[in-house]
Each structure stands twice: as structure tokens, then as C-alpha cells.
Structures
1.
Amino acid sequence: MNAYILRAKPHGIDQEEEFLSGQISVGWPCGKSLENCDRGVIASTLAKSYNTLSEISISMVDLFVHMPEGSIVLSPSINNKSLIHIFKTTSGYQYDSSKDNAACGNPHFIEAKHLKTVSRNTLPSPVFKSLSGARKTLSRISQHYGILDNYISSGFNVTKKIVNNTDGPIDATTVLYDLLSSEDEHIRLQAAIAVLNLGKNKKT
């Protein structure tokens, strides 16, 4: 069974509301559907539209195109950094040619049911750590599928304190882990140093 982290900003455009309405997407408009394409075909197709194309980008698109129905998808909220949207996919890969342009940027999509939005601090610890370390647009965390499935099946009941930035200050550790995903390299470096120091202080 499969589980992923997918950030709701395909092609650099905030699509959080579209995600919540039932369609998750990955960006990379390229003029055609990628259905039934293997990694090699995906790479050659994207190369026709993008001069700069990394292996990581190809891997992410390939991962999205082959995401199975029934997968669990975590998507960090853009509007509230302390929240995580949890989805379960209800279809495989689909393509919408009307959105295959720079303005929309999200022709490659998958239908998904929004199960619940939770505080990231209430996630099971292994999932929380994977989420904090995942900086790519799309990452696979299928090793945590069982934990997440149990978490969802239990009605998202947890014993950890829920953090909500509308109710009071956010835990400093949560803020540091959020900053590890910053697009600013300097901020990521400073956050990483702070996290390391935090670990050293706990040992002493």
C-alpha cells in the first residue's frame, strides 16, 4: 500500500483549494497526457518543454503518474503551516488538456477524497519526522502506510497536544521543523543548526 507527501503548489501556483475540492496535482504542463508512460517516455516528453530538467523532477512526475487508487496523501496547508490535509485517492492518473498551460499549470491530476485536516503535531511521530524532512514537491512515505491507516481508522484519535495557531503560541520545535522546508537555503541551514542544538541539549 502507498502513502505520499504532496505539496499543494504545482507549477508554483497555490492549488490548496482545488486539492480540498477533490483534485490533487503535480504541475509540469507538457502538452500531452502521460497516461501509461514509463519513466523514459515521461523524461523525453518533459524534455521537449523544459530546458532544465533534473532526475529528481522526472522521478516526482513518474511517481505521481503511477500513484495507485487508494493511496494516502498528506498535503501541508499553505495558509496555515501548522495544519496537514489528509486525502485518499479515488482514481488513478488523469489528464485535463484545458489546464495544460502556464496559467493553470496542473493538467496532470488525480481525484482524491479529503478525509480530514489535522494539526501536524497530532501525527504519529514517524510520520511527523518524515514530513519535516521532506522538502520535495512529492515524496513517497509508503513505509508509514500502516501507521497512517491505523491513525485514520481510529478516527484520528491521538494523545498528543493539538497545536492551533489561532488558539495560542505554536510549539517552538514545530516551527523549527517547518523552517526545514523553507525555500530559503539560509533559513533551512539556520533551522537545521537549531534542531541539532536542540537534540544536544536534550542529551545533556
2.
Amino acid sequence: MWRLIIKYAVFLFAILSLLKFIEFQFFSYKITLGLYLGIIATLFLFAGFLISYVFSLKINHSGTSSNLITIDENKLAEFSPREQQVLNLLCHGYTNKKIASCLNISTNTVKTHLSKLFEKLGVNNRTQALSQAKLLNIIS
């Protein structure tokens, strides 16, 4: 931890020293205002690229399969394929009418599938069903 703190302290000291040197050059009339602003803008541009590169490396390394939700296929197999489709559309926020039109079935059939889903999940409504499905790793 101390090595990281010292590394950042040295880096910030170097950047601050460079900025102060450029400021001194500007106020001693050795460089113009346009060149001064151009140098500052370029430094911040490269700092932005460096920071985004470092953070993208951290995201790529931390985005391994351990952070991804794996669907439990055994629990999912307890549901019929049509119930799985209804659950998938349900988790996207579709209404009964929209689910029926997507699956080319009647709204009464959707209600039947939902009641079977609710029964298998041990819940009473859509919100509880989605919450329980996420807890059981049936949906991601």
C-alpha cells in the first residue's frame, strides 16, 4: 500500500512541477498565451487518455466470470419451455397483452402460465416472481 501511495505522490509531484515550470515560462514572457493554453490542454488530454486506459484495464481484469451471474440450469429445468419464455418476457417488463402477442398466444394462456410460475416460485405477484427468480439464479 505504501508503495502505491509513494508512486502516486511522485507522479503528482512531477505533474505539479511541470505545470509550475510552464506557468513560470508564461509569466516570464518566454511563451505566448496560445502556446501556454495549448500545452496545458495537451497535458490534460494525455492525462485523460491515461486515466481512461488504466480504468479500462481494471474493468477488463475485474470483469471475469466470477462477477457474472450464472443461471442455474437445474432449477430452470423445473419450468416448461413456454414458462421460461413467459418469465423472460416478464423480466423485461412486458404486459400480459404484449407477452401474448410476442408468443402468439391468448392473454388467458399468459395468465395461466403466470399463475403456474407464481405457484412454482411460491409468490403472489410479478414483482415477487422476478425477485425470487433472481434469488434462485433463474434469470440474470
3.
Amino acid sequence: MYLDLDVVLAELKADDWLASDVDLTAMDAPTTSVATGIELQYVMEGEWPRDRVVRAHQEIDDLGVEMVPLDTAALDAAAELRSQYDSVNVFDGIHLGTARTLDEPIVSTDTLYPDVTEVAHIDPRDLG
């Protein structure tokens, strides 16, 4: 299962709105991409201390979530999906493209993802 940033944040932020609904043990082989580590740094820049932000990728690893590298196949899939769906932004495209190339469902509460028919979507609140 490919985890979007909201699921990762639910595990790393004590006060996250989704924290009580996410259970990584209920997910089969959770993965995410290195882009999630970058996005996590970007999102938490003003909220976490700098020494934590710059090592955010290590916290993802500590959760037992495999971080897969980005490759041209994922970026090509992201470009294809972004060209088909105007509402898909850069990070959404990378997450969807990576999930597609891994042939994994994307686990997220993002309301955009169910409309992207090329990638299966699972709401993490449905896994508990």
C-alpha cells in the first residue's frame, strides 16, 4: 500500500486530526516515495524544529514505512496523470504516479484520488 502524506502525518504529529484513525499495522507492506520525505519537510518547516525537519525522512523510516526512490517511470506516470487531471498538483502527481508504477493502491483521505480511475484508492479510516 502506498501512503500519501496525510497518513504519514497522522503517525508523526501527536495532534493530527487523522491520528486516531490510522493504524499502520492494518496496512500490508506500507510504502511511500522519497517525495513524501521532501513534502513532509516542506509542510512541517514552520511547525517542527529545524533539526527534526531536516531528518523527516528518518522518521518515516522509523515508522517501518519503506521509502522507494523516484524513477523516470514514476515521473512519466505522474506526467500522464497530471495531463489528464487538471486538479492533480505536483506532489499528488508524484504520489499517484509512484503508486501506479508500483501497482499499489494509494492510502489517503484526499478527495481527489477517488476520481483518478487509474489508481485504486483506500481511505485509511476504512482500514481500522
4.
Amino acid sequence: MDMSQDEIAQLTAENPHFRMLYEQHQVFEKQLRRYEESVYLSTQEELERKKIQKLKLAGKDEMKQILAHIRAQ
């Protein structure tokens, strides 16, 4: 993500929606790491991994929109 740690800290402190998105992003990241560590994924696990990737990306896009809106002000 192209956000500095200062921007993330400020937005998580000031914007509850951004904080929720950021926390979800961290959870999704941990879940994806677990899948990446597996040697073999079942069909169900592969579907779940792809679902998590899509949710993570959607959240990241929304966080970027919030940041762009803040920077534009």
C-alpha cells in the first residue's frame, strides 16, 4: 500500500471506518499467509483463499479512496 505509517496511524485514530478496513486487511493478510504455508489446498480451501484475496483487495481499494479523499482536501 502506498501509505506511510504516519498516515495509517492518523487515519486509524480519526476514522472508525478506515480503522475497521485496516484491521480487516490485517486479518485477511494473516489468513492468506496460512494458506500460503500449506503444501496442498483442498478445493474448498482454494475457493476460500480466492474469496479472501478479493475481500482484501476490495478493502485496500476502499482505504486508498479514503486516503485520496483526505489528501484532496
